[in-house]
Amino acid sequence: MVEFSLWDILRNLLLAARWTVSLSLIAFIGGGLVGLVLLVLRLSKLRGVDRAVGAYVQVFQGTPLLMQLFLAYFGIALFGIKTSPWTAAAVALTLYTSAYLTEIWRGCVASIPKGQWEAAQSLALNFGEQLRHVVLPQALRIAVPPTVGFLVQVIKGTALASVIGFVELTKAGSMISNATYQPFLVYACVALLYFALCFPVSLVAQSLERKLHGNRR
Amino acid sequence: MLIALDFSAVLASWPLLVRGVVWTIGLTIVGTVLGLLLGTACAWARARNLGHRPTALRWAVASYVELVRNTPFIVQLFFLFFGLPALGLKLSPEFASVLAMVINLGAYSAEIIRAGIEATPRGQIEAAHGLALTPGQTFRRVVLPPALQKVWPAMVSQIIIVMLGSAVCGQISTPELSYAANLISSNTFRAFEAFILATAVYLVLSMLTRRLLMWIGARFLVGR
What we know:
The complex is a heterodimer of chains A (217) and B (224). Chain A has eight helices and no strands. Chain A has helices at 6-43, 49-61, 65-78, 85-110, 114-122, 127-157, 169-180, 183-216. Chain A is flat, with a radius of gyration of 21 Å. Chain B has one domain (8-221): MetI-like (MetI-like fold, Orthogonal Bundle), CATH 1.10.3720.10.
């Protein structure tokens, strides 16, 4: 039997953590872009669009991410497109992230006083200009802390991609634990690596929040 | 579309789905009750406005909360189910699932409840002391009820997140809803249909749970 040292385990987990990081970044950036489009659609007050985006958010927030991953994995294949765990995970996590981010940002925009919209309107700015020059810059300031905080949820969410066979940190952990027969050690290392990824982000989000509220006092 | 959807085979396995729903609800109820108790205890230990606590206790609770909040639920579950037997502590899938849910909700609810506790006006705690209430009575009767009332909407969202998170418990063969969907999909080869049906059930469950919990909040927390 081959002996595995702690370094062997850690090194392989670290290599797999690259995939956790890239999947998180793709989902976060993609989800941010889709979320922004949804936000603009929702604010545009077009007939029916507001409700449709609301339903979209409700569906993604009201169902397990695991089911969304399965549906993406089997659903994309249904259209005759050859899919890999990597695409399915990227698509599902992007949509999931977009639903949460658009809802977070909607709250931030809603907290901008109505007078700001009206003032912008009375300056003859059109809808796009009102958003771009008056509302979004103010909303952005409030939006940063919860958005950074949500990044932690995205990183943790990527762990579920292991279930559809995408080899990231958690999946690598299962494989290494099956090879080494040291599940306690391996899963402890996996947990600590996730902690090392997420905790700094949490701290940044917390300090951003404190700064924001400090300004108000 | 290459394949037409066909739900008949999946719907024929409805007893499996029903059993799954019952398990999901059961896991959620037990996990929520115990998780809220654990969370309240941790919030009591961490709150900054309830007098002195031993530093060791504060540190222990803080590390527990941060460790759980910054690692994925699935890793916590795998650690309990696959990791602990290496130390000679073998858990059944069902017990490991409940334990993971309690530990998870305990950490999140601790932070939520703590926010409510720390929003208690200083004068109320002083008034309770003035009436010669013990610290225990002050916490149970003066601090906790309005604190829970303030944070209840956030609590409801977190409970629903934990319920949806329980879908992962199927991975260690706890017979809950997503496990049923997996089973049906491998029995019938109708994977997409099985999962979309299970997803719809989850959606209904989460909407009903939100209504029920908001009603419970309005009925038992506000009416004091």
